[in-house]
Amino acid sequence: MSLIPGRAQDIQFGGGGDRAAAAHKDHVRLADDGIVVDAGKPQVVELRFHVDPGFHINSHTPKDELLIPTVLKLDTADVKVVSEEYPKGTAFRLTVGDGETLDVYQGEFRVMLRVIVPRGASTLTGALRYQACDNAACFPPRSLPVKVAVTGK
């Protein structure tokens, strides 16, 4: 028996290096918008998220209870979050399996928040929990850190 030397980077497992690399990317990012609102009274602000081209994430209200919904969890003491409003998803038909239609976010989506902000500088912090998928597979669920500068004037 003979062994043929090879380089580790030439060996691919589980469908190739691109899929493995994709599994470790977030595929979702938060637009870096600073927010300025009137202090001390309820104000509506929006957080803009972008999903990478070729990917989608389940909406906040997916059609199947087994799917992982997109959820924004905020944990800030300075900014009072009165309510959250998620956008409606768009229909997305899978090209694999039985062609199931999902309710997803693609491209840009916005989560609207009704907040009360104190005067001065604050930070809205938390995480967006989601699961990114492409046309062939879904990747492990991720949490995207959310950190947004908010100024009450």
What do these coordinates show?
The chain has one domain: Immunoglobulin-like (Sandwich), CATH 2.60.40.1250. The protein is 5% helix and 46% strand. The protein is built from 1 helix and 12 strands; from the N terminus they run αββββββββββββ. It has one helix spanning 17-23, and strands at 28-30, 35-37, 43-51, 56-58, 71-74, 80-85, 90-93, 101-105, 108-116, 120-130, 132-133, 142-152. A 4-stranded antiparallel beta sheet has the order 1-3-9-6, with no helix packed on it. A 4-stranded mixed beta sheet has the order 2-12-10-5, with no helix packed on it. Strand 7 (90-93) and strand 8 (101-105) form a beta hairpin. The N and C termini lie far apart (76 Å).
Helix tally equals: 1
Order of helices and strands: HEEEEEEEEEEEE
- Give the termini distance in whole angstroms: 76 Å
CA radius of gyration: 20 Å
Question: Which CATH C-level class is it?
Answer: Mainly Beta
- Binned strand content: over 45%
Oligomer: single chain
What structural class results from the helix and strand content? mainly beta
Q: Enter the CATH topology name.
A: Immunoglobulin-like
Largest sheet: 4 strands, antiparallel
**Beta-strand segment tally:** 12
Number of separate domains: 1
Shape: elongated
Supply the CATH architecture. Sandwich
Q: Could you name the CATH homologous superfamily?
A: Thiol:disulfide interchange protein DsbD, N-terminal domain
Mean pLDDT across residues: 85
Protein name: Thiol:disulfide interchange protein DsbD N-terminal domain-containing protein
Pfam family, one: DsbD_N
